[in-house]
Amino acid sequence: MVRRVLVVGLFVACALVGCWQALVHTVHRGTRSVPDLTGQSVEQATRDAHDIGLLVELEEPGVFSGDVEIGAIAEQQPRPGFHVKTGSRIRVRVSLGSERAAIPDLRGESVQGSVRGLERAGLVPGGRSRVDGMTAADRVIATDPPIGTLASPGSEVHVLVNQSPANRLYVMPSLLSRTTEEARRFCLANRLRLGQIHEVPYPGLPPGVLLRQYPPEGSPVSRADIVAIWVVQ
Fold first, then answer.
1. The model scores a pTM over 0.70
2. Is residue 212 one of the residues assigned to a domain?
3. Which of 13, 31, 42, 195 has the most other CB atoms within 10 Å of its CB?
4. pLDDT level of residue 39 (50, 70, 90 thresholds)
């Protein structure tokens, strides 16, 4: 009796295995196993797929991948090993390399504004170098790496900051022979600071006429300079 049960069990097991193999053969008949195209060029993958009756279709855009060379296939659908019908398409995307962020244009930003701009771009604020007299105070005038450069997320970006405002220079005109009031109006209109007024005796000229000035005519002068005059007492 036991022997008969074992024989029947063995027969059933063999029948199930046969049915499974027949089913697999039926399902896979006329299909191809999708090869792994990762790391291949699109041209090479196209040739390899063609040899087994499949087609390769390049999709845009590519994908960021630090493990696959730029321009090589980094992603495919269907996945390797999946069975598809002969003539099916394998959709692929190529590697764009490691993800990159463009250095933003921070010119004219304050130091705090540049920090926020870098953090929004996924970058890290680095060191600060300072110069004077290039533009308005506390303003970024350049970055390292330069604006527009592609950098890996988390890269440090250094900034060049103008510390003190630029002093625009003018050519000092002649104030000689003018009156004190005329010199005062001139300095006020041109936003120059009129400093000390020295009164000196000078017979033959009416009081208040300018005899001497500093800075002298033709000298460079900024709005931070003080204009001094000598007038007839």
1. no
2. yes
3. 42
4. very high
- Identity of the residue numbered 129: S
Residue with tokens 């040899």: 51
For residue 179, is it within any domain?
yes
Query: Residue 24: which pLDDT band, with cuts at 50, 70 and 90?
Result: very low
Last residue of a domain, one of 75, 98, 121: 98
DSSP E strands, the chain: 31-33, 55-58, 73-77, 83-85, 89-94, 101-102, 124-131, 139-144, 150-151, 156-162, 169-171, 193-200, 210-214, 220-222, 226-232
Q: How many domains does the chain have?
A: 3
Q: Is the peptide bond before 215 cis (omega within 30 degrees of 0)?
A: yes
CB burial of residue 44 (10 Å; 0-12, 13-18, 19+): middle
Domain assignment of residue 66, yes or no: yes
| Rounded-to-integer distance, Cα 186 and Cα 116, Å | 44
Amino acid at 19: C
Phi-psi region of 116 (alpha: psi -120 to 50; beta: other; left: phi over 0): alpha
User: pLDDT tens for residues 194-204?
Assistant: 888 999 998 88
Q: Is residue 142 one of the residues assigned to a domain?
A: yes
Residue in the structure block whose two tokens are 């090479």: 44
Domain that holds residue 201: 169-232
Residue with tokens 């625009």: 168
CATH number at residue 83: 3.30.10.20
3-state class (DSSP) for residue 126: strand
Judge if the upstream peptide bond of residue 207 is cis by omega within 30 degrees of 0: no
Q: Are 97 and 63 in contact (CB under 8 A)?
A: no
